[in-house]
Amino acid sequence: MSPSTPVAEVAHVGLAKAGLLRKLGIHTVRDLLYHLPRRYEDTRAVTPVAQLRPGEVQTARVVVRNVSMRRSKERNMVLVMASLVEGADTVGAIWFNQKFLMGQLHSGMELLVSGKVQASRTGLAFRNPVFERVGAGQRHVGRLAPVYPETEGLSSHFLRGRIEPLLPLADELPDRLPPSIRAAEGLEPIAVALRQVHFPDDEPSRLKASERIAFEELFLLQLAAERARRRRLSTAGVTVPYDVEVARAFAGALPFQLTNGQRVAAHEILTDMAAAGPMNRLLQGDVGSGKTAVAAMAALMTSRAGLQTAVMAPTEILARQHQATLTDLLAPHDLAPRLLVGSTPARARREILEAVANGRESLLVGTHALIEDDVAFSGLGLVVVDEQHRFGVAQRQRLRRKGALTPNFLAMTATPIPRSLQLTVYGDVNHSELREMPPGRQPVSTRVVPPHERDDAYQFIRDQVAEGRQAFVICPLIEENDKLGVRSAVAEHERLRDVVFTDLRVELLHGRMPAREKEERMARFATGEADLLVSTSVIEVGVDVPNATIMVIEGAERFGLAQLHQFRGRVGRGGHRSFCLLFQGGMDDEGSQRLDTVAATQSGFDLAEADLRLRGAGDVAGLRQHGLPEMLAADLLDVVMGQRTRAAAQAWLDSDPDLTAYEPLHAAMNGYRAVFDLD
Ligand code: ADP
Ligand code: MG
Predict the structure, then answer these.
(1) Is the shortest distance between the CB of 438 and ligand 1 below 6 Å?
(2) 445-601 CATH pick, 3.40.50.300, 3.60.60.10, 2.10.60.10, 3.40.309.10
(3) Of the ligands numbered here, which is closest to the C-alpha atom of 318?
(4) pLDDT digits (tens, 9 = 90+) for 448-481
(5) Lowest mean pLDDT among 54-58, 417-421, 642-646
(6) CA-proximal residue: ligand 1, atom 23 (nearest)
(7) How far is 460 from 196, CA to CA, in rounded Å?
(8) 288 lines ligand 1 (CB under 6 A)
(9) Phi (first) and psi of residue 282, to 5 degrees
């Protein structure tokens, strides 16, 4: 038996449980050792039987007497009963439908029992208590006992019994923290930490163990990010000279004044692009904050340096919108973007590919179509990816690798990353933020609408339309799903058109329509030929209809906070006061709290922080989604630990840049390879 032994070979696991473990990503003994408790049951305080009180969970140390079983008539249950004694005092115990206990409980056994005590006709009795024989090595009762994340069919009781005998094998695990760092930071060896995190001697030992594991997790993350950053800065990247005249000419030809945020962000980007290593920057800003204008300046600078820019967006609608915006912004500079999307006709596509390959075109905007194998650039200098979380790591990299030298990389997102996560999860990325909106934007009034106010809301929409305005209605699904009772775009479109707003023009849009049809319907709404647009979340990005003042979101609790904020950003783009109505579907408290948060928060940045508090850092950061190892013990929001591990990672890399000094560290980087582009 070793750390690499498959779990199915561990005593008393068996094939069925091994299958369940696999579902949790647990394949080997090592994985099992790293399957950390979520919390602990503390049954260390033992109450004398004479002092047990009804209604409370308590633990007692007793001797078993009189075990018996009977079938209850009323509900056809098997009842196992026992008397538990301590000196002269007795308390009862009763278990429901656990017939097998008859084989486990015997008169004279000394037990620790723990559970809720209840008053009955015959005196006090434990109801369904957990128990364990008193002896060496208490695993369940009378100690801090681990409670593992719950999964169907895998109880903490089962896991305790399997994990505890394996703990000696922790000595064979390579310790991923080098001894010198452990010594400097006062951290214990991993074997000690794992033993104590599963079966702690006491609370201080548990804290120490958990700190040690958290340190390891954050240290590895920081090490990977910092290593990627150093590598990037030392690779030959494309450099684009920062020509102040070009920047001035761009700003001067705009029909508006750049905001301060735009100016700062553009300066940061142009400075990065002019530096030797390739840029890796994230431009964050709410929908409508003017990210595209900043990207346009970067594309112009790149083009003036004789290099090309590729702009990739997650949907065709968004790609077209970028294409339109960039065309306007860059027209005074004789730079016309070309559009390449899935629906581009074959002949046009051939022509575009040829022009891009021989360098005649220097700005290409599109969707996934840009990463097809036959798309080749003559000199790719800048890659801009919008809403990059919608793309996989591999897709982003494929576009980046279309250049001979590593091109500059600019990601844009309206889903801000909380400050607190920027140094850890996004350690290799530089951040620019557009925190202010261009002048003239009004905040969108947001209201959570309970079911009984639906009719009032419809009347309100009618009034707005009478004044010439338009409304979006977003539904979670395309087609009806009766089971969930969730509103679908198709059914809602019919209902609104035929029942609620018979006098209005109601248009429908969803992602299963052919691209051309989507365009046509969107265009009808944009030109005012429709009053209402019922849509699924395809509307999320890129739609710019300044006359639309109402955003209705059905089943709002089914969307994430960031997504709701994006929908909301679709209105308030013109001069009219705008509204976002969050219709509740089936509600729970958490859902309703989230909607209230959206209603109370205007800034996407603040919303991101709020989301973080509500959901916890792990979820928000979406580590798995990024292809990163999940944090088991570390809290990504722990700023002090973040700084400590970052300093340690930097110091280590200063003396061991290629990670050759300590093999386990090098091996550990495998888990980060894909995300941080360490190859
Ligand atoms: P984002 O990409 O951040 O959603 P856009 O760059 O598409 O935002 O800008 C939204 C709209 O605001 C566009 O019509 C753009 O021309 C306009 N805009 C951008 N910057 C400014 C500014 N500084 N002042 C006024 N309007 C601006
Ligand atoms: Mg945009």
Answers:
(1) yes
(2) 3.40.50.300
(3) 2
(4) 998 889 999 999 999 999 999 999 999 987 776 6
(5) 417-421
(6) 258
(7) 61
(8) yes
(9) -115, 125
